[in-house]
Write a structure and sequence with these properties.
This protein is mostly helical. The chain is 62% helix and 0% strand. The longest helix is centred in the last third of the chain and has 18 residues. One of its GO terms (cellular component) is nucleus. It is found in: Nucleus.
Length: 325
């Protein structure tokens, strides 16, 4: 078993120091894109403060408190990526000198750092040090997230051996940055459906929900029904607002038709009517037309004179409902 406290035994020769000016600039750029923190920053901060991890997680103790070295995100961002051998030694010491966490949890973080050097070097270290496979998978996933290699990261982070750690951050990152400019949310939705994490951060929940709305309104409606009543109503209103506000032209008609034809229960029916008739949704351009479409969808058509000037929307509804209108 390798002694992880011995810097030279862990890193060997530093003749090919991986942290070049270009690589440091790339890491700092990704950090800015991610809102000020890489995933390794979050790991180091959690390792310093013991926050954010499930007490039953097999990798919890990576993130347990260090008694004498309390890292925070800002300090973590100063230590990684290390700009010199001296800073790398400081980072190594921060990780290894604690008595409050077990060695194989420390080794997992070192494994992440060694991936910066060479994948073979990291794998060799993991074999010599006995880093459990699930720890390697998790850290490799975070390493790829930090490099915006989202598809590769997902292959690791959605592995069935892992628990859903950092799920809120992973979902938020995949929605914001792995969606190809807001056109494709496959990665974020694949992660959510595969891992089935319990999201706690309202921002992450809203981002995931918005991705569902843009991808499949029926799926978004089903998701909203899993939430407590107050949040469920908020998400339902968000569903309606997003559908009617996001699209333009013929797409508006198609999306509005899909929304109006959803199988609402009695509570949702009331929310739908109130939101578009008297609530904040009344300001939406297609609010009145969508209410009319809903009446048609549930068989409550009133007078033909109430159709107004919504021929395009109505035609879209006819097509979207298979000609039932």
């Amino acid at each position: 078993m390798i002694d992880c406290t011995k810097f030279d035994r862990v890193f060997g020769s530093l003749d090919s120091f991986p942290y070049t000016r270009k690589s440091i600039q790339e890491a700092d750029s990704h950090r800015r894109i991610f809102g000020g923190a890489l995933f390794i920053d979050r790991v180091l901060a959690a390792l310093g403060h013991g926050k954010g991890m499930s007490p039953t997680s097999p990798i919890t103790h990576i993130y347990m408190a260090i008694e004498t070295h309390h890292l925070c995100l800002s300090l973590a961002s100063k230590l990684y990526p290390p700009k010199s051998e001296e800073v790398l030694r400081q980072l190594h010491e921060q990780i290894t000198k604690s008595n409050s966490i077990e060695d194989h949890h420390k080794l997992s973080v070192i494994f992440y750092i060694l991936l910066d050097f060479d994948e073979d070097k990291a794998d060799s270290f993991a074999n010599r040090a006995g880093v459990p496979t699930k720890y390697q998978i998790f850290m490799r996933g975070l390493w790829n997230m930090d490099r915006q290699a989202f598809e590769v990261a997902l292959e690791h982070l959605a592995h069935p051996s892992l628990q859903a750690e950092f799920a809120d951050d992973i979902v938020a990152t995949l929605v914001r940055h792995g969606s190809q400019g807001g056109e494709d949310y496959t990665l974020a939705l694949a992660y959510y459906h595969t891992v089935q994490p319990v999201l706690k951060n309202p921002v992450a929940i809203e981002l995931l929900f918005d991705a569902m709305v843009r991808s499949n309104v029926s799926e978004a409606l089903a998701f909203s029904r899993t939430k407590p009543h107050a949040m469920r109503e908020q998400l339902f209103q968000r569903l309606v607002a997003n559908v009617l506000d996001e699209a333009r032209g013929g797409e508006t008609a198609e999306r509005a038709c899909e929304l109006a034809a959803l199988p609402f229960d009695a509570v949702e029916e009331g929310w739908f009517r109130d939101f578009l008739a008297t609530g904040n949704g009344k300001k939406l351009k297609a609010a009145k037309d969508t209410l009319m479409m809903r009446q048609i969808a549930i068989g409550q058509v009133t007078s033909a004179g109430e159709k107004g000037s919504w021929g395009t929307v109505m035609e879209g509804f006819k097509v979207g409902s298979g000609g039932r209108a």
